Amino acid sequence: xxxxxxxxxxxxxxxxxxxxxxxxxxxxxxxxxxxxxxxxxxxxxxxxxxxxxxxxxxxxxxxxxxxxxxxxxxxxxxxxxxxxxxxxxxxxxxxxxxxxxxxxxxxxxxxxxxxxxxxxxxxxxxxxxxxxxxxxxxxxxxxxxxxxxxxxxxxxxxxxxxxxxxxxxxxxxxxxxxxxxxxxxxxxxxxxxxxxxxxxxxxxxxxxxxxxxxxxxxxxxxxxxxxxxxxxxxxxxxxxxxxxxxxxxxxxxxxxxxxxxxxxxxxxxxxxxxxxxxxxxxxxxxxxxxxxxxxxxxxxxxxxxxxxxxxxxxxxxxxxxxxxxxxxxxxxxxxxxxxxxxxxxxxxxxxxxxxxxxxxx
Length: 361
Ligand code: ADP
Prior knowledge:
Residues 116-252 form the AAA+ ATPase domain. Belongs to the AAA ATPase family. By secondary structure, the chain is an alpha/beta fold. The chain is built from 17 helices and five strands. Strands 2-3-4-1-5 form a five-stranded parallel sheet, with helices on both faces. The chain is elongated and about 65 Å long. Bound molecules: adenosine-5'-diphosphate (ADP). Adenosine-5'-diphosphate binds next to helix 6, helix 11 and helix 13.
């Protein structure tokens, strides 16, 4: 009965539509999460399918939720983001390419003094494409992509955080080459958390340092890609492990134009739409802010069309009629009136000062 339950669990996870693009083998991974969680992260003990089923059965006992939650939290299958989906940031793309993509293509070249960076930090204002870049690295490298945020690791998983951190790296090694994306890494050093969370984050940080150090002695290609909006919060120990540090700035004029074009790829535009003007008007907007402007503008025609109509009347309008409403310059101007930049000029000054302090290229 227990074996059957284990198989059902694996089958139901497979049925949640995971593709195999960035996950070497889901069933293996799921099994390893189960066994690693069960055994405090020692999945290398697991030798063959029969033993895996056995471990799954054991796991099925004391901590069924732990594995299910970890699995749900960290596996991002087929992130499907290409470099071209990301506007601008050519310098960041170049550095990431050198730090993370090339070592996978030329492992023998990246040896000794040229050994790959094990920890890379992206810092900058929120909504500027850090997560997108991490996903593009995984897509372009075809690596297994594990995506976790520090606040959930320390907060929601209180009591298990340290073990899960070990487990995370074990999973990463098992499925190398792997990109571990750790968002909100500053959380591990934040003073603004409760006493219990502080204790959890202290333990996770200590474990993380050990694990990143361990990567240097391993021939498995596992890279930690961390992101933060508060780089100044990171302590010296963490900074040292994240040797390569990349500033991800707000988009400049050219990048904003690119971003608008990416966002409006499949949208019908009215003849008078002036992308240059929208890009000029959005200085200081993050990529996320600008995406919101495009989204809002693209809805405006539909809003006008249904205004004052009953649901019955709306039902009688065909969808192609909506699809044929072009986005006008007025729609953009209206959206710009509503959506303001979320990053302040003071914040930008702070980032630029920090860039000279500990950025690298
Ligand atoms: P961050 O991780 O830096 O907070 P994200 O990568 O999550 O930001 O970006 C949030 C959203 O903003 C993305 O899903 C995307 O729609 C948009 N975005 C931000 N920067 C860019 C960019 N450079 N190119 C394309 N889209 C972007």
